[in-house]
Amino acid sequence: MNENGQDKKPSIFKQSFEEVKTYFKGFRFDKPHLKAALPFFLEMLFFAFIITLDLTLKDYLYKLVVEQNGGNMTVIEGFFDLTYSENTGMGFGMGSDSTLGITIMTFIIVVVVICYLLVFRKDKPYIRIPLIMVAAGGIGNLVDRLAFGYVRDFFEFTFMNFAIFNVADSFITIGAIALIIGLIVTMATTTADEKKKAQAAAEVGAGATESAGEAPRDDDSDDKTAEESSGATEKETASEKGVDAEAPANGEAAAESKTAFSVEPVEGDGADDGNSCAPTADDGEDGR
Question: Each residue's pLDDT tens digit in the chain (288 positions)?
């Protein structure tokens, strides 16, 4: 933990080392592990291929050009020759007579590039492959410097005044150009992604501002809804009171109607009066 009490993140080198250690510790010859190792295996093959091609071709061309043709061999008249040259400087004959300094510098550059490739394993192929080309070409020339004190060059374009070079120089040059292009693409892609993120953040902020501005309208609509519901409740209460007020009036009216149209029997004479009200057959006959 650091001074602020927060957990200190491990360095990128330690983290990468732990990832590689964990991978090889739990390595199995199954599809997931082999699929994860395939890109790095292909990169190592490409790395070894460049070094092998450079050193093998130098030995072959030395025998062909120097031992059999005296140091010069025309391949295409007026365009391309094979000419043996001992370079004590940098690539393409630059910085001659500085073998020790260039050897040390080449060794440092190769170590740095290899460490970068091992640590930053998730870089894009258009970054990793050029770096592999530069590192492998540097090792090819470094072997010559350590073995002979100079680099053996053979390729010469005779149609123009250009330095003699070898396979390693070609891979270093092509790799450097490809690396510059890859870095430009990476920078452009990163800038485009940052613009998209900034635009998305601005849209989110604008949406939040609009929703905050619409919030009072929702409160007003809620107040109106509450007022309407309270008015409806009052109307229902008033209607219920009206029904309750009409109920006694209807009861009084029913009582009045009963009093007006009903005949209440007199005590002791109810049955007789009822019978006397109905005409009888004798009465009818008497009438006749």
Answer: 555 555 566 677 677 777 777 777 777 788 888 888 888 899 999 999 999 999 999 999 999 999 999 999 999 999 999 999 998 877 665 666 677 888 899 899 999 998 888 888 778 888 999 999 999 999 999 999 999 999 999 999 999 988 899 999 999 999 999 999 999 998 988 888 788 888 888 888 777 776 666 555 544 555 555 555 555 555 555 455 444 444 444 444 444 444 433 444 444 444 344 444 344 444 444 443
**Phi then psi for 165, rounded to 5 degrees?**
-140, 180
Catalytic (active site) residue 59: no
Which two three-digit tokens encode residue 20?
A: 């590689």
CA distance 223 to 225: 5
Residue 169 is a catalytic residue: yes
Do 131 and 186 meet the contact criterion of CB atoms below 8 Å apart? no
State the catalytic residue, choosing from 7, 59, 169, 218. Answer: 169
| CA–CA distance, 79 with 269 (Å, rounded to integer) | 156
Q: Residue for token digits 């619409």?
A: 214
Task: Give residue for tokens 């998209």.
Answer: 196
- 7, 54, 153, 244: the catalytic one is 153
